[in-house]
Design goal:
mainly alpha, Growth Hormone, Chain: A, 80% helix, 15 helices, 418 residues
Amino acid sequence: MIFYVQVVGLSPSVAGFVIMAGGIWDAVTDPIMGYLAERTRSKWGAYRPYLLFGAIPLALSFVILFWIPPTLEGNALYAFVLVALLFFKTCYTVVSIPYSTLGARMTSDTHERTRLMGVRMMAGFMGGVTITGLAAFFRNTMADKEAFFLLGLTCAFISVAVLYFCFKQTATAAPRPDNAPPARNIIDALSTLLRNRAFVLIFLAIACVAVANNFVNSTVLFYFDGALSDRTAGNTALFFMAATPLVTIPIWSMIALRFDKKPSWILGSVVFIFGALMLYFDRSGSVTNAFIIYITLNFGLSAYAVLFWSMLPDTIEYGEHVTGVRNESTIIGVVSSGQKVSLAISAQILGLLLEKIGYIGEGVQSPTTVEGLRLIISGVSGTALVVSAVLIAFYPINSSKHREILEALDLRHGQKRD
């Protein structure tokens, strides 16, 4: 959003539309990619080939995403921005859906999945800290146009290296011969997903989290630039927000292992809502207070980085138990689609709301605009997290229930699981 509005020069509503269009594209391609991936057969397994062959196109898409052709302007530039985003979204989908399904193949133990996702998310946020730090350095030392392009180029090189490393070092187990088969076609796959209550609840809950996350993270620089008149502090806040999960993810992993996943999810919502209230009622104009508030918000949001990705694979066995059909990457594809649609719609709403309160591209904002910005961030994101917590309160799986499901599946297939 900040790139499209302040560098490309799009209005907030047009920028929101472009991002929404990318989300709608994801809504179509993510489930299709999931459906295709779990049916892929190769000497490298079902999911690893996409890391190997998708790395170079994804790297190219990073570069194009943050490149502004010097000869284009007006509608031609807007069209290029849209096509570049759709190309990036497609390349990202081809790699990310199979990658995200690897965890479900590595282990069926619910506690082991929590540990595995904790490690995965720690590595992910280490990447986030690295890139955010580089972004702040680039933006503080050169013009934004060059800074964003150099950032895209850096992401391109890093992504190829880590994806090839992951391909070489990751061995995925073949499907258990006694597992239920996948759905016969994509219509049947979607039908069985609707009968999977655990999946439906976590799908809706993570969509709410995606809305909250988008309203917080997409407005950080707007808030620091416009409300606090401190652009450098905004870049520092982004770095702190990226670094916070490196501390909090192990905490949430331990909480989930001790008290189970559902109560941990609700606790994460409580922490976030507390931070949202702090943001709304803070009138000090203090950058330090703003740092504390955004770190608190990210403390709450980091819970879902562990919990969502460890809870989602559990819905695979739940669905297999209820429907007799095992959906793996189709589940990942559909839920990823839901997340991205939520991000897309919320981006469009955010753009419209920013225009409604009179937010201008750069510079100090009026007191009315600042008040509106504060209300938008805290009100929308806080409400979304309340809804998320209510949905998860009805989530039917805990660790003991998941063990019962695995035992029932073993009995159904006539063998004991190790």
